[in-house]
């Protein structure tokens, strides 16, 4: 099946190029950029020399449709919405990596993304593609909205407790850290080496746009979960997210019982790996892979459940999950092209 990529010059785009290069069915035959049409992707990413030397074209939905059946759209929120519509109108299947279509409440989008809300009709048929959990919804989608990086780690970390309705209202605290590639390739002073190296910064305190996305998903499984406290930090590394979730539970539970809940929930879920009790994952242990690794514990003094979930933001948090979604949507093995061991060390 021929697939296209819009937003090829970005970090999400170039990670899609890497993963699609070895895909057994999807053939990436065309890539697009709004400002670099006519130029070779190699000139922006020399590591692709001799392997992928496609020339980028201007974004033209009709032209894309003539060449490909499915498109991965990896452009910023606020820009994605118009391209999504035009690509869908041209008859393409679209997997969108931006935050534009993730929030069911359009007022939430306005409030947290500080952009004009999307018309409700535009959300019809959109599926929030949390690929490890909602496979049946994905098979019946008309459009896939790929989850955000932090929400992927956080929601997979909390799903077993949410579906069993074990969480005390408004009690969830998520302390999350990300590598710098999460911010994309665009230059900014805040992301200079001299600002990031040997530094740890909290950002978007109580205002992060992924807050309502996490709440929306958790409240689907348990409407009593309410609101969360979600804080994000930038750490001096390229790839990786660690989300540590602190939760009050309605009834006391032992660490063994909690661990059993997680291992049972995820026993048939290929890309979520629950670590043995007492072991906690680190970001390097999933780097370059589509895995989300989880460690669980109970603080016996306070009774809080403490869950640690890690992903590679560019793979499970973006390109990998997008391909997993496209695999499921088109009837392929969900792991096609994604059976990658993490790069270690
Ligand atoms: N980085 C990450 O870890 C994650 C990213 N995402 C999401 O994926 C999407 C892409 O992110 P990322 O690759 O990191 O971002 P980058 O900043 O690295 O790249 C942005 C891309 O968007 C394109 N673009 C910018 N403006 C426009 C426009 N007006 N019209 C069309 N294309 C445009 C750029 O193309 P050009 O070359 O023409 O400038 C570039 O290819 C975003 O929505 C982001 O939120 C989601 C999860 C994780
Ligand atoms: C490190 C870093 O800056 N990460 C970005 C992730 C943004 C992102 O992925 O944007 P969406 O809202 O489109 O999902 C952030 O925290 O805003």
UniProtKB/TrEMBL annotation:
Q: Which GO terms describe its molecular function?
A: N-acetyl-gamma-glutamyl-phosphate reductase activity
Which InterPro entries does UniProt cross-reference here? AGPR, AGPR_AS, AGPR_dimerisation_dom, AGPR_type-1, NAD(P)-bd_dom_sf, Semialdehyde_DH_NAD-bd
> Active-site positions, per UniProt?
149
A Pfam family annotated for this chain is Semialdhyde_dhC_1
CDD domains recorded: AGPR_1_C, AGPR_1_N
Q: Which residues form the Semialdehyde dehydrogenase NAD-binding domain?
A: 2-141
Catalysed reaction(s) here are: N-acetyl-L-glutamate 5-semialdehyde + phosphate + NADP(+) = N-acetyl-L-glutamyl 5-phosphate + NADPH + H(+)
Q: What is its main location?
A: cytoplasm
Question: What subcellular locations does the record give?
Answer: Cytoplasm
Please give the SUPFAM superfamilies that the UniProt record associates with this protein: Glyceraldehyde-3-phosphate dehydrogenase-like, C-terminal domain, NAD(P)-binding Rossmann-fold domains
Q: What is its EC number?
A: 1.2.1.38
Q: Which domain of life is it from?
A: Bacteria
Q: Which UniProt keywords apply?
A: Amino-acid biosynthesis, Arginine biosynthesis, Cytoplasm, NADP, Oxidoreductase
Give the pathway listed in the UniProt entry for this protein.
Answer: Amino-acid biosynthesis; L-arginine biosynthesis; N(2)-acetyl-L-ornithine from L-glutamate: step 3/4
Q: What is its biological role?
A: Catalyzes the NADPH-dependent reduction of N-acetyl-5-glutamyl phosphate to yield N-acetyl-L-glutamate 5-semialdehyde.
| Family classification | Belongs to the NAGSA dehydrogenase family. Type 1 subfamily.
Stated name of the protein:
N-acetyl-gamma-glutamyl-phosphate reductase
Task: Give the organism, scientific name.
Answer: Youngiibacter multivorans
């Amino acid at each position: 099946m021929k697939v296209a990529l819009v937003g090829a010059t970005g970090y999400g785009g170039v990670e899609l190029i890497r993963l699609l290069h070895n895909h057994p069915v999807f053939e990436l035959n065309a890539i697009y950029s709004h400002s670099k049409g006519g130029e070779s992707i190699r000139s922006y990413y020399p590591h692709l020399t001799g392997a992928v030397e496609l020339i980028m074209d201007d974004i033209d939905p009709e032209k894309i449709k003539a060449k490909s059946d499915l498109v991965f759209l990896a452009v910023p929120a606020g820009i994605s919405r118009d391209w999504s519509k035009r690509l869908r109108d041209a008859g393409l299947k679209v997997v969108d990596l931006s935050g534009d279509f993730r929030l069911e409440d359009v007022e939430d989008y306005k409030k947290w993304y500080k952009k004009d809300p999307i018309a409700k009709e535009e959300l019809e048929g959109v599926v929030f593609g949390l690929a490890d959990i909602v496979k049946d919804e994905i098979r019946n989608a008309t459009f896939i909205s790929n989850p955000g990086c932090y929400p992927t780690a956080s929601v997979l970390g909390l799903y077993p407790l949410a579906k069993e309705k074990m969480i005390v209202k408004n009690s969830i605290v998520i302390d999350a850290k990300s590598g710098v590639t999460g911010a994309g390739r665009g230059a900014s002073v805040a992301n200079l080496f001299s600002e990031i190296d040997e530094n740890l910064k909290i950002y978007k305190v109580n205002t992060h746009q992924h807050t309502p996305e996490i709440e929306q998903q958790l409240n689907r499984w348990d409407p009593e979960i309410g609101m969360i406290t979600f804080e994000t930090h930038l750490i001096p590394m390229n790839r990786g997210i660690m989300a540590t979730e602190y939760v009050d539970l309605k009834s006391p539970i032992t660490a063994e019982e909690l661990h059993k809940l997680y291992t049972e929930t995820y026993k048939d879920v290929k890309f979520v790996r629950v670590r043995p009790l007492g072991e906690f994952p680190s970001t390097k242990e999933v780097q370059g892979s589509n895995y989300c690794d989880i460690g669980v514990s109970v603080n016996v003094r306070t009774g809080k459940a403490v869950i640690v979930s890690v992903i590679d933001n560019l793979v499970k948090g973006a390109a990998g999950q997008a391909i997993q979604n496209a695999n499921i949507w088109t009837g392929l093995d969900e792991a096609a092209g994604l059976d990658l061991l993490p790069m270690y060390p």
